[in-house]
Specification:
Layout: E1 2-6, H1 11-20, E2 25-30, E3 35-36, H2 42-52, E4 55-60, H3 75-96, E5 100-109, H4 122-138, E6 147-153, H5 174-186, E7 192-196
Parallel strand pairs: 1-2, 1-4, 2-3, 4-5, 5-6, 6-7
Protein backbone atom coordinates (compact mmCIF):
# COMPACT_ATOMS: atom_id res chain seq x y z
CA UNK A 1 0.00 0.00 0.00
CA UNK A 2 1.02 3.61 -0.54
CA UNK A 3 0.21 6.30 2.01
CA UNK A 4 0.50 10.09 1.79
CA UNK A 5 0.94 11.84 5.15
CA UNK A 6 0.43 15.60 4.91
CA UNK A 7 2.06 17.43 7.79
CA UNK A 8 4.55 14.63 8.22
CA UNK A 9 7.12 16.81 10.01
CA UNK A 10 4.79 17.68 12.87
CA UNK A 11 4.41 15.78 16.14
CA UNK A 12 1.34 13.82 15.08
CA UNK A 13 2.53 13.46 11.49
CA UNK A 14 5.78 11.85 12.60
CA UNK A 15 3.96 9.29 14.74
CA UNK A 16 1.41 8.52 12.02
CA UNK A 17 4.17 8.08 9.43
CA UNK A 18 6.08 5.72 11.70
CA UNK A 19 2.96 3.66 12.46
CA UNK A 20 2.16 3.28 8.76
CA UNK A 21 5.64 2.15 7.69
CA UNK A 22 4.89 -1.45 8.70
CA UNK A 23 1.96 -1.53 6.25
CA UNK A 24 3.49 -0.04 3.12
CA UNK A 25 5.26 2.91 1.54
CA UNK A 26 4.87 6.24 3.32
CA UNK A 27 5.33 9.54 1.48
CA UNK A 28 5.59 12.57 3.71
CA UNK A 29 4.57 16.06 2.63
CA UNK A 30 4.95 19.37 4.46
CA UNK A 31 6.04 22.94 3.86
CA UNK A 32 9.68 21.93 4.27
CA UNK A 33 9.92 18.34 2.99
CA UNK A 34 11.06 17.02 -0.40
CA UNK A 35 7.40 16.69 -1.36
CA UNK A 36 6.39 20.20 -0.39
CA UNK A 37 2.89 21.59 0.03
CA UNK A 38 1.25 24.74 1.33
CA UNK A 39 -2.29 23.69 2.18
CA UNK A 40 -3.53 27.28 1.99
CA UNK A 41 -2.76 27.22 -1.75
CA UNK A 42 -4.94 24.94 -3.93
CA UNK A 43 -2.33 25.01 -6.72
CA UNK A 44 0.30 23.71 -4.28
CA UNK A 45 -2.02 20.88 -3.26
CA UNK A 46 -2.63 19.94 -6.91
CA UNK A 47 1.11 20.00 -7.59
CA UNK A 48 1.72 17.69 -4.63
CA UNK A 49 -0.77 15.13 -5.92
CA UNK A 50 0.68 15.32 -9.42
CA UNK A 51 4.14 14.63 -8.02
CA UNK A 52 3.07 11.77 -5.74
CA UNK A 53 0.58 10.09 -8.07
CA UNK A 54 -1.87 7.41 -6.98
CA UNK A 55 -2.10 6.55 -3.27
CA UNK A 56 -4.27 4.24 -1.18
CA UNK A 57 -4.81 6.72 1.63
CA UNK A 58 -4.24 10.35 2.56
CA UNK A 59 -3.61 11.20 6.21
CA UNK A 60 -3.90 14.88 7.08
CA UNK A 61 -2.00 15.96 10.20
CA UNK A 62 -2.18 19.71 9.71
CA UNK A 63 -3.70 22.80 11.19
CA UNK A 64 -2.08 26.10 12.10
CA UNK A 65 -4.39 28.63 13.76
CA UNK A 66 -3.92 31.75 15.89
CA UNK A 67 -4.82 31.67 19.58
CA UNK A 68 -6.20 35.02 20.78
CA UNK A 69 -9.37 36.26 22.50
CA UNK A 70 -12.30 36.99 20.20
CA UNK A 71 -11.98 40.69 21.00
CA UNK A 72 -8.41 40.72 19.64
CA UNK A 73 -8.81 38.58 16.52
CA UNK A 74 -9.11 40.26 13.14
CA UNK A 75 -11.19 39.04 10.23
CA UNK A 76 -7.94 38.26 8.41
CA UNK A 77 -6.72 36.06 11.30
CA UNK A 78 -9.96 34.07 11.27
CA UNK A 79 -9.70 33.75 7.50
CA UNK A 80 -6.04 32.69 7.58
CA UNK A 81 -6.61 30.07 10.30
CA UNK A 82 -9.68 28.70 8.57
CA UNK A 83 -7.89 28.54 5.21
CA UNK A 84 -5.14 26.45 6.81
CA UNK A 85 -6.93 23.99 9.10
CA UNK A 86 -10.39 24.16 7.54
CA UNK A 87 -10.34 24.75 3.79
CA UNK A 88 -6.84 23.28 3.49
CA UNK A 89 -8.15 19.89 4.58
CA UNK A 90 -11.28 20.22 2.45
CA UNK A 91 -9.05 20.87 -0.57
CA UNK A 92 -6.88 17.84 0.28
CA UNK A 93 -10.04 15.79 -0.19
CA UNK A 94 -11.52 17.66 -3.15
CA UNK A 95 -8.29 17.69 -5.15
CA UNK A 96 -7.32 14.19 -4.03
CA UNK A 97 -10.40 12.27 -5.15
CA UNK A 98 -8.86 11.32 -8.49
CA UNK A 99 -5.57 10.30 -6.86
CA UNK A 100 -6.89 7.90 -4.19
CA UNK A 101 -7.49 4.34 -5.35
CA UNK A 102 -10.95 2.76 -5.26
CA UNK A 103 -11.92 1.99 -1.66
CA UNK A 104 -9.12 4.18 -0.34
CA UNK A 105 -9.47 6.79 2.36
CA UNK A 106 -8.92 10.28 3.65
CA UNK A 107 -8.27 10.81 7.34
CA UNK A 108 -8.47 14.40 8.57
CA UNK A 109 -7.56 15.94 11.93
CA UNK A 110 -9.43 18.20 14.32
CA UNK A 111 -9.22 18.28 18.11
CA UNK A 112 -10.87 18.67 21.49
CA UNK A 113 -11.65 22.36 20.92
CA UNK A 114 -14.49 21.39 18.58
CA UNK A 115 -16.50 20.33 21.66
CA UNK A 116 -14.66 21.57 24.77
CA UNK A 117 -13.33 25.11 24.23
CA UNK A 118 -10.59 27.02 26.01
CA UNK A 119 -10.03 30.80 26.17
CA UNK A 120 -8.51 32.16 22.96
CA UNK A 121 -9.42 29.00 21.03
CA UNK A 122 -12.25 30.25 18.82
CA UNK A 123 -10.39 29.95 15.49
CA UNK A 124 -9.42 26.35 16.25
CA UNK A 125 -12.99 25.60 17.36
CA UNK A 126 -14.36 27.10 14.14
CA UNK A 127 -12.08 25.04 11.91
CA UNK A 128 -12.50 21.84 13.93
CA UNK A 129 -16.28 22.03 13.95
CA UNK A 130 -16.39 22.72 10.23
CA UNK A 131 -14.13 19.77 9.38
CA UNK A 132 -16.14 17.38 11.55
CA UNK A 133 -19.36 18.43 9.81
CA UNK A 134 -17.66 18.20 6.41
CA UNK A 135 -16.55 14.65 7.24
CA UNK A 136 -20.12 13.54 7.92
CA UNK A 137 -21.40 15.12 4.70
CA UNK A 138 -18.53 14.08 2.42
CA UNK A 139 -18.84 10.45 3.54
CA UNK A 140 -22.18 10.11 1.74
CA UNK A 141 -20.94 11.86 -1.42
CA UNK A 142 -17.53 10.36 -2.16
CA UNK A 143 -17.40 8.11 -5.26
CA UNK A 144 -15.85 4.67 -5.88
CA UNK A 145 -16.11 3.45 -2.30
CA UNK A 146 -13.77 6.17 -1.02
CA UNK A 147 -13.94 6.66 2.74
CA UNK A 148 -13.39 9.66 5.02
CA UNK A 149 -12.95 9.90 8.79
CA UNK A 150 -11.56 12.45 11.22
CA UNK A 151 -9.33 11.96 14.25
CA UNK A 152 -10.14 14.44 17.04
CA UNK A 153 -7.69 14.15 19.95
CA UNK A 154 -7.41 15.83 23.31
CA UNK A 155 -4.17 17.64 24.18
CA UNK A 156 -1.10 15.42 23.72
CA UNK A 157 1.18 14.28 26.53
CA UNK A 158 4.12 15.15 24.29
CA UNK A 159 2.88 18.68 23.46
CA UNK A 160 4.19 20.18 26.69
CA UNK A 161 4.11 23.77 25.43
CA UNK A 162 0.28 23.53 25.29
CA UNK A 163 -0.31 22.00 28.72
CA UNK A 164 -0.74 25.31 30.57
CA UNK A 165 -3.64 26.22 28.24
CA UNK A 166 -5.48 22.96 29.04
CA UNK A 167 -5.64 22.72 32.84
CA UNK A 168 -7.55 19.64 33.98
CA UNK A 169 -7.84 18.17 30.48
CA UNK A 170 -7.11 14.47 30.08
CA UNK A 171 -3.91 14.06 28.07
CA UNK A 172 -3.41 11.34 25.49
CA UNK A 173 -0.28 10.03 23.81
CA UNK A 174 0.75 10.56 20.22
CA UNK A 175 0.73 6.77 19.86
CA UNK A 176 -2.99 6.71 20.72
CA UNK A 177 -3.59 9.29 18.00
CA UNK A 178 -1.54 7.29 15.49
CA UNK A 179 -3.55 4.18 16.39
CA UNK A 180 -6.77 6.04 15.52
CA UNK A 181 -5.28 6.92 12.13
CA UNK A 182 -4.47 3.24 11.57
CA UNK A 183 -8.06 2.33 12.44
CA UNK A 184 -9.35 4.83 9.92
CA UNK A 185 -6.90 3.97 7.13
CA UNK A 186 -6.74 0.19 7.45
CA UNK A 187 -10.35 -0.39 8.52
CA UNK A 188 -13.61 -0.03 6.63
CA UNK A 189 -15.48 2.67 8.54
CA UNK A 190 -16.48 5.98 6.98
CA UNK A 191 -18.08 9.18 8.22
CA UNK A 192 -16.63 8.68 11.69
CA UNK A 193 -15.23 11.23 14.13
CA UNK A 194 -12.77 9.37 16.36
CA UNK A 195 -12.95 11.40 19.58
CA UNK A 196 -9.92 10.71 21.75
CA UNK A 197 -10.90 12.32 25.04
Amino acid sequence: MKFLVVGSNGLIGQHVSLALTQYGEVIGASRSSEVSVDVKDPASIRAMYEKVGKVDAVASCIGKVPFKPVTELSYQEYEEGFRDKGLGQVELVRAGIDYVTDGGSFTLMTGILARDPIPSGSVAALANGAIESFTLAAAIDLPRGLRINTVSPNVLVEATNYHSSFPGYHQITAKEVADAYLKSILGKQTGQIYKLD
